[in-house]
């Protein structure tokens, strides 16, 4: 029996999770399970006729007159034998302590589940409905209503007696009732009425739309969404009614409340039950379909729809067809929809089955995503709601996602996801690496392996390196560069690379990688040798970083051949580690490299390599003549005779001219310029530099029979030699190019000199006059004489102590003061001067300067 039940439950889940379109990609909003345990036992022998739901328990009525109290799992907790015939309705108050039951034989019972109070009455007609006051537990609310051919209100008086009153009659059987707060809503054959129990007045009547349907076969479904909102479902029509307070000015003889229909629309199927879900509705529908073979209508599976009400229509959110037991034999009146407001649970009740519908939680959402193989979305949903999910683990979803990607062949994506999913779990990392190895995809996972926190076993990294070494030298080199050297056994990998080099000894990628491995292993000498062989740019960085200067003393030529500029800079920056002498000796057989080194040394410091300046003359002459003359000019340690000899041997005229002039042989130098270079401008420039009259004389004598030279002299010597000396020596009849222009230039230069002299004279006169006026103004000013001044001769105060006595004081422009009697008497024709200033040969105002000092 249990196996059969499991099969039925599985069948229900398969059928209810789908809409009519079996392969729809839309996720269902609800999940379903069959209420089993005690319910299964009950419905094997009996049939469900009604049910009501409380937050704590369920109450189920059957066709054989039994009422069962069940827990939420369907286990029987209590059983009541109420009647031998069908139980029509069960009602519970909000506390769940009192229950009302009515049956087809007219019996009505209201009793306390935990107390002894009880009402028992048998009527002469079937009682279809019963509803106890929601607050029946209160002594002031001991009320309930029953309905058969009329609606009766029972109230307990102060004498503990029950009295009844008719609320309504005459419109057929009362078939549905719902009590919420102080409002009672019921339905009869004509429509729906709402009664205010506190005001004892009926508020409204909502007529039935489709009068063609039998009310006993297609009963009305009522549901209170809240204390003022009633939802009515009848046939295929749904109305949402709102109870509102009437304004005082509109009352007159009207009830204080009225009902407004805020939404009204038609559905596709017949309504068997209604329930609210937030601002949406859950609708249980009875479905009839037309058979293709017999062209007759048959009962199809009932549907549970979630719809969004609009003012005049609705929008379907989800729709599920339910496979309940015996649905082929059921009618619209056989289905009921009950709900638990606190937990959003919906109970679909049929004679042979009770199905529970629940809102899907995050675990259900993840289940659906995994079923649809939407692993990435499932993983994201689990991460967002990790505190709320109970049945799933992020890691399990992630591992399933990796497996799915690998099965699909997306190895790169799978490897990339490992970083996020596996995190710091080394065991999982190693397990996944071996999985990639089994399918030959170690290369895919290599870029994503952890390198720090966590670190895997060295064997894992070595396994991947061997994989690359067998098929991809470039990839192998990349990993060696990127991975820290302590991840794997360096000696094992070095040996593997050396084995491969035996087959391909000139492979630059392997050689470079081997050098890097030697570097990780601190075997710098071997690494340096490989770098130099490969002429690799990192060789200088390696030397600097690991201070390998002792290892390169015999490799200076190799370094210079590779990159002479960097090599020289490095050698000069580290003279304390490799001496200049050692470098020069190593480069003895490579004079061109020796020159590069010594030239840069000379540029840095003219005196450091002074012992090699004689050698540098030959090196410059051989390899770098443009820098020879600057070297000769800047060097103070160069042997001039040796330099002159070399320059004369090689016929370096400019250098020879410089050396001759530097050695004092200016006439020979000038002669060489004129005879060898034939450059009058350079000769004139040289004569200007030497500023020697004899040189100018030699230049004139040499040029006197050479018209081009005469033109050059006429154009340039005007400011150094009197042009008349040259002009007088020019032979009559000699044709001189541009003579006229040269003479005009001489005259212009002369005029310019005259103008300059006159300008200077004007400036001097103006300055002299300005200074004279300034001196005159200064000397005309008064001089303060007070008690602090002394006579410069006798050194006594300049002013007498008795001011009444006459006295004479002489004050010079130099601010020295004397008593008149202390000065020598001047001669008849001589002026009187300050003794101090005359003695020191100083001018006026010098005393002021002394005071300032």
Automatic annotation (TrEMBL):
One of its GO terms (cellular component) is AP-3 adaptor complex. It comes from the Eukaryota. CHCR repeats lie at residues 568-712. Residues 791-838 form the RING-type domain. InterPro entries: Beta-prop_Vps41, Clathrin_H-chain/VPS_repeat, TPR-like_helical_dom_sf, Vps41, Vps41/Vps8, WD40/YVTN_repeat-like_dom_sf, WD40_repeat_dom_sf, Znf_RING. Residues 1-33 are annotated as: Disordered. CDD domains: RING-H2_Vps41 (cd16690). The keyword Protein transport applies. PANTHER family: VACUOLAR PROTEIN SORTING VPS41 (PTHR12616), VACUOLAR PROTEIN SORTING-ASSOCIATED PROTEIN 41 HOMOLOG (PTHR12616:SF1). This is Vacuolar protein sorting-associated protein 41 homolog. The gene is VPS41.
